[in-house]
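Schema walk-through. Below, the input block comes first and the output block second. Nothing else is stored per chain. Lengths vary across the set, and this one has 279 residues.
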Amino acid sequence: MSTVNITAAEINKLRQMTGAGMMDCRKALTETNGDFEAAIDWLRKKGQKVAALRGDRDAKEGVVFAKTTSDNKTGITLCVSCETDFVSKNTDFIAFAESIMDAAIAHNLHSTEELNGVEINGVKIADLINDKLASIGEKIGVSKFERIDAEFVSSYIHGTNRMGVLVGFNKPNSEIGKDIAMQIAAMNPVAVDASSISAEVVERERAIIMDIIKADPKMVGKPEEMLAKITEGKINAFFKESTLTAQAFVKDGSMSVGDYIKSKDGDLKVVSFKRVALG
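--- output ---
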């Protein structure tokens, strides 16, 4: 039994990450000595449905913007976060956040650290954020920053600045770009295709699936070869559900996203994507 002291804050953090119940989160952290990644795996092995491999960058409140440079070869999406939806819906706050987005594009920035040092009307963004914090009375900041460079980048904002998506392609196609960005917003894939998922992630998923299968009373005594075959079948199902080009196209479920792209332009390929969402 673990001797690590699990705090209420840690339990709440795991709840926010997974959506699991308080007692389940406490048990998971206790069993894994406070290791959050191991606790997520523990919950999954116990049958909890948690988004352990999803790529969302979550912020509780705020606004998300996604824009590209004029040549569409670079895209940036970022979240300016705050504590309450009251502030996130304030027109002055939204305008302030968009000015930060515009500065990121104008200065061709690569990170939040670079962004903080850029000036708007002679004042560094870091100082503007501190001034806004003092006037609003809430903690605000650029909580997430993502960038894509490609031959062609499409951007898309879902909802009222609740989510931003960037999609990089090997060649221009603005019509397909919007469709694929909307697909990513709706279905939240973890990678472009199976080859884009690291071997470490695949092996982690395989181990979790195998443990779940072995815990099934119906599988007790079954040959290892059968269990391995079932596991691989579930891995393939995971790829189909969780990778962009293998997913069913949301506008036409009779074809995959990959098939849709091919039907429009056989040479067009998605090279990368980013999805930033408020949680």
